[in-house]
Amino acid sequence: MIEVLLADDHLMFREGLKECLSREQNIKVKDEAGSGKEVLEKIRTQSYDVIVLDISLPDLNGLEILRQIKDNKPDARVLILSMHSEDQFAYQAFKLGAAGYLPKTHTTQDLLTAICMIARGGKFITSRAAEKLILQINAFDKRVSHDQLSFREHQVFLRIACGKTIKQIASELGLSVSTINTLRYRIFKKMSFRNNMEIARYAIKNKLIE
User: Fold this and answer.
1) What is the CATH number that goes with domain 2-136?
2) What's the pTM value of the predicted model, to 2 decimals?
3) Percent share of the chain, pLDDT over 70
4) b or e along 176-195 (b: 16 or more beta carbons within 10 Å of the residue's beta carbon)?
5) Which of 19, 28, 143, 205 has the most CB atoms around its CB within 10 Å?
6) What residues does each domain of the chain span?
7) How far apart are CA 99 and CA 118, in angstroms?
8) Cβ(123)–Cβ(55) under 8 Å?
9) How is the chain split among helix, strand and coil, in percent rounded to 5?
């Protein structure tokens, strides 16, 4: 029996997934969570074969939750569910230790396949994500891709692209203004940017923000 922790803040969506999974004889939804805090609390006391984690929980970013899960339980198998396409977060998710990444536009059968594959110790990746990852890996050595950014740098990068100030970013991430400025400098150096406008243009061109 594959025991699953199902984490999504939309109750109706979560109930729908739970109903679909309950029809499978070899899958059991052992626990549910509607926030990142709940996820982290549950993994401290319980073990799961697969954690199905929505990337857009209300209190914590899904990638930050993933990082904390892997810090506390390195062997945890996490499938990221996302409303975003593979273009935006798949590479970052796999870098942080995700066992799979599945956009919510895919079918329930894809979800079942992913859960079973991950429970067996495998990885799940869509053909589109695989293609994107290959392209990103090939581009990495050219030192122009955003995928070379660390997790924190990536967080700051996206917020700068959205037009947020250094003070706003510091407040949102719970970091000092000095730290944000250091991270901004590293982003500029790694990606050869000269100003915030170039970050915004890059993010829009690569569909990292809408």
Assistant:
1) 3.40.50.2300
2) 0.66
3) 91
4) eeebbeebbebbbebbebee
5) 28
6) 2-136, 146-205
7) 6
8) no
9) 55, 15, 30
SS3 of 149, please? Answer: coil
| Residues 6 or more apart in contact with residue 178 via CB below 8 angstroms | none
Six-digit token pair at 12? 């109706």
Among 194, 82, 190, 98, residue whose Cα is nearest residue 141: 190
Locate 136 and state its tokens. 């990103």
CA–CA distance, 71 with 183 (Å, rounded to integer): 22
Q: Tens digit of pLDDT for each residue in 133-150? A: 666 666 555 545 787 888
> What's the Cα-to-Cα distance from 200 to each of 186, 205, 208, rounded to whole Å?
16, 9, 9
Residue 164 sits at φ, ψ, to 5 deg, of -80, 150
Q: Say if CB 30 and CB 18 are below 8 A apart.
A: no
Q: Environment class of residue 120 by beta-carbon count within 10 Å: exposed (0-12), middle (13-18) or buried (19+)? A: exposed
DSSP state of 9: S
Helix (H, G, I), strand (E, B) or coil at 197: helix
For domain 146-205, say whether CATH 1.10.10.10 is its number: yes
User: Could you tell me whether strands 50-54 and 78-82 are parallel, antiparallel, or unpaired per DSSP bridges?
Assistant: parallel
Are 188 and 144 a contacting pair, CB within 8 Å? no
